[in-house]
Write a structure and sequence with these properties.
alpha/beta; homodimer; disordered N terminus; 14 strands; 6-stranded mixed β-sheet; 4-stranded parallel β-sheet
Amino acid sequence: MVNLPLAPIRMTDQVPSKSNSIRPSQLRCIGCDRVFEKATQNFRCAHCGDLLEIVYPDWNTSDAARLDAAKLKDLWRQRRGSRFPVDESGVWRFRELLPSFGEKDVISLREGNTPLYEMPNCARVAGLPQLYAKHQGMNPTGSFKDTGMTVAASVARREGFRWVSCASTGNTSASMAAYAARGGMRSLVLIPEGKVSWGKLSQALDYGAVTCQLKTDFDGCMRVLNEVVQRMSVYLLNSVNPYRIEGQKTAAIELMEQLDWQPPDHIIVPGGNLGNSSALGKAFIEMRRLGLISRLPKVSIIQAAGANALVRTMRENGGSELVTVHAETAASAIRIGNPASWKKAVTVLEATSGTVEEVSEVEIALAKAEIGADGIGCEPASAVTLAGLKKLVKQGFVKPGESVILILTGHLLKDPEFTLKFHRGDLFAGAVSEKEVSILRPQQRAPIVLDATVDAVVQTLKAADDQLEL
Amino acid sequence: MVNLPLAPIRMTDQVPSKSNSIRPSQLRCIGCDRVFEKATQNFRCAHCGDLLEIVYPDWNTSDAARLDAAKLKDLWRQRRGSRFPVDESGVWRFRELLPSFGEKDVISLREGNTPLYEMPNCARVAGLPQLYAKHQGMNPTGSFKDTGMTVAASVARREGFRWVSCASTGNTSASMAAYAARGGMRSLVLIPEGKVSWGKLSQALDYGAVTCQLKTDFDGCMRVLNEVVQRMSVYLLNSVNPYRIEGQKTAAIELMEQLDWQPPDHIIVPGGNLGNSSALGKAFIEMRRLGLISRLPKVSIIQAAGANALVRTMRENGGSELVTVHAETAASAIRIGNPASWKKAVTVLEATSGTVEEVSEVEIALAKAEIGADGIGCEPASAVTLAGLKKLVKQGFVKPGESVILILTGHLLKDPEFTLKFHRGDLFAGAVSEKEVSILRPQQRAPIVLDATVDAVVQTLKAADDQLEL
């Protein structure tokens, strides 16, 4: 057995704590506040059935001072130069703010470490002097799901599970299957028959998932899965799993490090199942509690108008009761009418003084093209952030002097079909007004068929130049 | 105008040279050795028409000692902790080995920084105790092309071009369009009519490329393009552009840093247009000349049997004259019968004592599934590396005690169609033998349609477990 001469491992794993005794994390019900040491198979509170969240007893009130903020920042910076696998992960590099884990138990694909891009074209269309986007779609499987999956899949393996499972046709199943394969576990994907998003499912198949198409709808798949995990030793990796939220938190920590720990005024997040906004908000709240940042950014959540459960919930009852909707939008990653993490998201909106907004299908398509024009690209669900930002600027909620970060959640290659339909002009197939067509047309670039002559190409170039100068 | 509180920039740009005068890079013809200060529009030698390569007069013979290897390694390591944009790029971090550039002239998407993954499943099927893969598909647009495009697009902008162009239906056009958009330039893609790979082209469209379908074949597109760049101020970004090769070099430098500067015994690279193997080989040769590494790995190149121009060239005439072929393979990224950089690749094979091998369509599909089973995934062209490695091990060219790095060039999401067809069982549509079908079948995982009952799912899980235990 030959060992490759990998760079020497330098352990930098001492938690800079003022005390030596670290108490393990616990699970707390967000409904009735009961605390548990261990989760049930379906990650629901055994008493009231609500969702659980991870809490760290050591961080309560004055104990928070046990973690030395300056030393933590220094430790995390040092790890950026390390070649130790858990240090190279943009999630586990921040492991002091995660449930404690032995390095050998970690399943990692070197997730996180996602870029923060300046977006000059998007700033211009939004009417802001400057705008940045943190691109979570640059994770290994092409979506932000990887940052949560590395933690939850690691928990599954540590607890001895051989099977993990989720109901999903999209980014979740792709990420789950990758981490399961990486960790030597098997994965089961349940999808409603006939509603298969084959493109995204290709990833789960490649990573070796067993895929069942059930003769029911998505909620039916979830019901079956919740019973399967009771009957067999199968670990549930849907977004009710609070360890996924913990991993997703780290995107906010990494962002703050990229901004030298100076919080921006606004964070704009797409809202689907609401796990991501819950995770980012939890991170900001915890970072402030631990003295890592001095104030909270406003976390605002944008939904597609056709899948606007949270928007309606906030507007109709101020967040006290979920209004479910029949979801319909081309932005498939946020096509969710009954978001699991709605209560956690309401907490984040309230704690950070953020807002909600909804955007139309045409607004999403236009914003996606504008993000592409910055040379970045994203999947349609990510583009709701820019579309929503434009509205928040017009409403005065975001002011021109304020700093704004868009959270892009998925890679352009997650949904090439949307992009092609948009440019061919058949995305909306007559379902939009003349005015909307005229707004979209300048962004559409269907290929031009030409004779194979230099003159034909030169004329096309000149015409494109003229068009730009108009 | 508000400035986001980005992390303070620490300049680490002093080249650790024993002399203060750095002579600029030059272009040298690989055919007649003539040296030029500036390239022609089509990047061909004005005298003999052969390709050009970038050379650094300061590195010749004894002058090479001007660059202090230990100090360079230290400098590059320091930059990993920097938030300065050119330091965050996995290409520009190694800028001492690239043509000199002002930071403001650099167009970057934070390319490079790609992971080196251990591949336990692939090691097992190849019959090796250990195996690693460097995944260039984790670049921003999903392929290794980004590492070269950041350099060549930056040259284009510095030279004042408003338009860049290439003939390509795949990864090159996606990458070019992204960097053009990022740099405020426009991009032109020429493609043969009727042979449009819509999935990959969706990226170029999203980033704003003008796309012309010409009524001709690929060579016809290249001919038209070569004339267009003579007639108009349009910068050519096909792989004949030697600045692309320079950028692609950095993957090898980054790999050596990941291996603590201890060269592996073997590097296995897919061979299409042969720019990538040329670039990686050039990097190893230069690193040895500069004292950064003490010996060369063997760089071996694997082609699809249906696009085996280099394999035939080496076997039929030892690399003295290109044998072109009519290319046909499902691995579209290496479907090239007339590779532009063949001579450069021959030089690399000779200098590093590498070899060539070809693999069948079935071998590619099988290897791709085996890479997927490691939780990584790649596009079909990347999978030739594992398929070829298996042969090289059987032939004894790669010995079980030797260290091997596979170079994966494209992301799984670049070609979901291939993956779907494979799992549905219609990739080969009857064109393979019974024996081949029986080899592929255990890897295929078409979704199973089930009644929406817990029993049905539980039975499927148990059957999958039983299958594994057989």
